[in-house]
Design brief:
2 helices; three-stranded antiparallel β-sheet; Nucleoside Triphosphate Pyrophosphohydrolase; alpha+beta; about 45% strand; globular
Length: about 130
């Protein structure tokens, strides 16, 4: 039986109706695919707590977390990812790519033009439809 990994993703909005997208680096699993920033839940954490911690670690900024967008299970070759995506806004700092190859603000209507990690696709669909 495959292991399930719980992951939280932040769909960070700005005032121009753009979403912060993160390009996975060449040394990450699923290299050179786009994702919403976030990460694995640690023991005892909920998705909101994990996102606040992960965004501080990965992007160097503070967010406030809003409503749920999607809670999906995606089966990869070796693991199942339970991806919980939530709306978020930056309340302090400016995002910096500390682990990702690139960060890009993308208009909602252009999200489908990026090559996404498979687990992020249901969230993209929910945002553009």
């Amino acid at each position: 039986m495959k292991k399930t990994i719980k992951v939280a993703a932040a769909v960070i909005h700005n005032d121009n109706n753009q979403i912060l997208c993160a390009l996975r680096s060449s040394i990450m699993s699923l290299p050179n695919l786009w994702e919403f920033p976030g990460g694995k839940l640690e023991e005892g954490e909920n998705a909101r707590e994990a996102l606040i911690r992960e965004i501080e670690e990965e992007l160097g900024c503070t967010i406030e977390v809003g409503d749920l967008i999607a809670d999906i299970h995606h089966e990869y070759e070796k693991v199942i990812v339970n991806l919980i995506s939530l709306h978020a806004n930056i309340v302090k700092g400016k995002p910096e790519a500390k682990e990702h190859a690139e960060l890009r603000w993308v208009p909602v209507r252009e999200l489908e033009s990026l090559e996404w990690a498979p687990a992020d696709l249901p969230t993209v669909s929910a945002l553009v439809n």
